[in-house]
Each structure stands twice: as C-alpha cells, then as structure tokens.
Design goal:
The protein has 481 residues and is mostly helical. The protein has three domains: 1-188, Growth Hormone, Chain: A (Up-down Bundle), CATH 1.20.1250.20; 198-253; 258-475, MFS general substrate transporter like domains (Growth Hormone, Chain: A, Up-down Bundle), CATH 1.20.1250. The chain has 18 helices and no strands. The radius of gyration is 21 Å and the shape is globular.
C-alpha cells in the first residue's frame, strides 16, 4: 500500500527549489562581473547596476506583491514568480548589451520578489505552528547551500564556458520548479477578492523606497552630503509620511498597520531588520579584507567564506526544531548574542596579518548565530500574523529585512571608500584583484573595526527586541478541514 506524502512536505519542496535558485543566483553573478564587463564592452557603472537593478526591484515590489497575493492567492503568484524568474534568466543569457542585461535583471528581480514574498506564507499555511520553525529552518538551508554552491559552480562555469551559462543554468531548474509548483501546490487561502487594491498607497510606498535605495547606493560615489543625495533622502521622508497618512485612512491598505499592533510580530520584524543591517555588511567587509589586504582573487576569497554558510546550514534546521518546542526568544536571542560576540572577536584579532584560522573562528560564530536566529525569528513573526494577512505580513518582514541588507551594503562600501582610493574600491567591487601598500592596509582594517563596532551595537539592539517580544501563542493559521 502506497504511503501518501503529506502536502506540507510537497509545499516545502517546491518553495525550497525556488529559494535554492535565488540563493545561487545572488552569489554566482558577482564572480562573472569582470568577464561580463569585458565581453559586453560595458563600463563600471553599468556593471554595478547589473547587481543593483535586481536588488532594487526585488525589494520595492515585495509589499505590493504581498498585498496582491492576499487578494488573489499566494500559490498563483508564487508559480508566476517561477515563470518570470526563469524567463528573466533566459533573457539575461541572450543579452547583447549592458542595457539589455540590466533590463533582464529587472525581470529576474520581479520574479524573485513574487517567489520571496509568497514562499514564507505558503510554508506558514501548510505547516502547523509547532512545526513551522523546523520547516523554515529546512527552507533556510538553501540560502546557506547557495552561499557554498554559488562560488563553486560559478568558478567551474567561468573556467570552461561563457558567463552566459551562469544564467542559462537557472532555466532547467526554473522549468522543473514551475511544473512541479503548478502540479503540486494547492491554494489554501480563499483570498480577499472583494477588497480593492490601494494604488495610491502602493505608488507612494514605491516612490519612497526607491528614493531611499537610490540615495544609499548612489551616495557611495556622490557623497552622502551632496545635494542630489540629500534631495533623495528628503523625497523618501515626504513619500513615507504620505504613505502612512494614506494607509491610516484607506479602506483596504497596502500595508495593514494593525499587524504591528501584535507585539510578537512587530518586535520580530524590527529584530530581523536590525540583524540584517548589522550582519549583511560583514560578508562584504571580510571579502574586501581577503582581497585588499591578503591579495586573494575573488573566487578564493568567496571560497574562504564557506565556513559561515556550512555552519549555518547545519544549525538552521536544529534551531527551527528548538523554537517549535520552546519558542523563538531563546534561540533567536542567543543567535544575535553569538553574532555580536563574533564581531567583538574580529575587532580584537583583525590586523593585516591575521591568520585565516582566526578569521574562520569569527565566521563560524557568525554562521552559528545566523542559523540560530533566522528560522525561529521568522516563525515567530508569521505565527503572530492573521491567516488572511500572511502575504502582507511576509512582505513587510522581507521588505524591512531587504532594506536593512541594502543599507548595510552601502555602509560596507562607504567604509571601504573612506579607507581606500575610490578607483581601487570600485575595482574591487567588480572583482578585480587589487592590493594595497602597508599604510592603506592598516587604514582599511581600522575602518573595518569601526564598522564592526556599529554592528555590535545594532546586534545588541536586535537582541533586546528579540528578548522582550513576549511569549508566542501557538495559533494554527491553516484553514480548518
């Protein structure tokens, strides 16, 4: 007699394929930037936008897609995301100019946003509250695996084939995921089809977030005190104020502000944003250190970061199981404390001659802390959201986390720019191998320590929010059978 596979595991398998594809793509593209710039005859600014277009679009569209998913169904939009991402990957592969590649990356980013915002909601609907931490931990493994597989796969592809194959490799995976999702996923939510979509709210939110992200990224080159950048920050503030005024009065707001009346949800979201703001810069700064100070090529530098991803992949599912039993506060807060300890370790030992063993110790602590934090914190946030608002709850969580990542990214490059000649810093960003003399090396290490001090403070704040979020109520958000 055949044993039927429980639907929850089928849903997890589909969302995990999407997460794996997205995670590999986020690391593999960076390695190919020098070759793409050479083969397409592109300039440095265009290559930076190959990265930033994807990040900007995938961040800005999260809240809009989350609201639409709550109205029309999460499974439909998730499957559409698979298709859009796959088409975008194929378009990237056949691009004949930098402009075409940037436009294709925008398509990819839209597909990624559709998958990102709905995958967490689909898992939350499919699993009971006492199993969500484990499920989210298993799903989170893919991001750690992508951190390992991306550099390895990218290095292998670039050594035997054109850069185009780093995008073509997504096509068969995307087709498999699209077909599997179409055949296997069920729509568990009824949707809120009677509600209207708040277009003015979506427009003001998008304008504000685009202004912020442009200010953060362009400020690295223009200077954060320049008038264009100050103008963008001002536009962000005005648009954000207009957005919240609109949402308070809208009958069916893009962002249901009542979500943040739930202490567990709101504190979990704030903790996630602060953790991203604190820790996303660490990878970039350590990567710069390995290239600038130690003289390693980009591929070797990426491979030396593997301990972080490997440890996180092991700890993630375990922390999810623990959170299912004892709640999120203990593992998530402990994870943040460990990440803060890792930063203090880096501050204490980092110098132009620090051994890799000492660096690896810090990376392992960062990986353990990240593995302990992510699944429990995400599970707590989603457990605190009502079932008919899972899409927008996931979207708000992802939007603030992504914004924290972009802000942290800008911070890391600003630190590098303050320690290095601008031309050297920009070369390093696209993966060329440039090293410094002893005096600039020491200055760069000092800049890293200063950035890590800021990150320690942010980790401490995140740990505070995590600790006082309150005890979780194990409410089942799945529809009754």
């Amino acid at each position: 007699m055949e044993r039927k596979i429980d639907y929850k595991w089928i849903a997890l398998s589909v969302t995990t394929i999407g997460a794996l594809m997205s995670s590999i793509d986020s690391t593999i593209v960076v390695l190919a930037l020098p070759q793409m710039m050479d083969r397409l005859g592109a300039n440095l600014v265009e290559m930076i936008w190959v990265i930033m277009a994807y990040i900007l679009v995938s961040t800005v569209l999260l809240l809009v897609f989350g609201r639409i998913a709550d109205m029309f169904g999460r499974t439909k939009l998730y499957n559409l995301g698979f298709v859009v991402f796959t088409i975008g990957s194929a378009l990237c592969g056949i691009s004949r100019s930098a402009a075409q590649l940037i436009l294709s990356r925008i398509v990819q980013g839209a597909g990624a946003a559709l998958m990102m915002v709905n995958s967490t909601a689909i898992i939350t609907e499919a699993f009971p509250p006492d199993e969500r931490g484990r499920a989210l931990g298993i799903n989170g493994i893919t991001w750690a695996i992508g951190g390992i597989a991306g550099p390895l796969l990218g290095g292998l592809i670039l050594s035997v084939a054109s850069w185009r194959w780093i995008f073509y490799i997504n096509v068969p995976i995307g087709i498999l995921g699209s077909v599997w999702g179409y055949l296997a996923l069920k729509e568990l939510s009824k949707g809120n089809r009677g509600e209207r979509f708040d277009a003015p709210g979506a427009a003001t939110f998008s304008l504000g977030l685009v202004s912020l992200l442009f200010a953060l990224t362009l400020g690295i080159g223009l200077g954060f005190g320049s008038w264009p950048i100050l103008g963008l920050f001002g536009l962000f503030a005005v648009a954000l104020a207009a957005f919240f005024l609109r949402e308070r009065r809208a009958a069916a707001p893009v962002l249901d502000l009542s979500l943040f009346g739930n202490r567990i949800y709101s504190f979990s979201v704030v903790a996630a944003m602060l953790q991203s703001l604190a820790m996303f810069a660490v990878n970039f700064l350590v990567t710069f250190y390995l290239q600038v100070v130690r003289g390693y090529d980009p591929l070797k530098a990426a491979l030396l970061l593997i301990p972080l991803s490997a440890v996180s992949a092991v700890v993630g599912p375990v922390s999810g199981i623990i959170s299912d039993k004892v709640g999120a506060r203990v593992p998530a807060t402990l994870g943040l404390i460990l990440q803060g300890a890792a930063l203090l370790w880096f501050i204490a030992v980092l110098s132009p001659t620090t051994s890799y063993l000492q660096i690896a110790v810090g990376l392992v602590l960062v990986g353990i802390g990240g593995g302990l934090f992510w699944a429990p914190n995400t599970s707590a946030a989603m457990n605190g959201a009502p079932r008919n608002r899972l899409g927008i709850a996931s979207a708000a969580l992802a939007t603030l986390r992504q914004t924290g990542m972009v802000t942290s990214f800008a911070l890391s490059l600003a630190v590098a720019a303050g320690s290095l000649p601008r031309e050297v810093m920009m070369q390093l960003f696209v993966g060329t191998n440039a090293t410094l003399g002893s005096a600039p090396q020491a200055a760069f290490v000092t800049g890293m320590r200063n950035a890590f001090i800021v990150s320690v403070v942010l980790c401490a704040l995140a740990a505070g929010f995590s600790l006082v979020r309150g005890a979780e109520k194990r409410r089942d958000s799945r529809p009754s059978s």
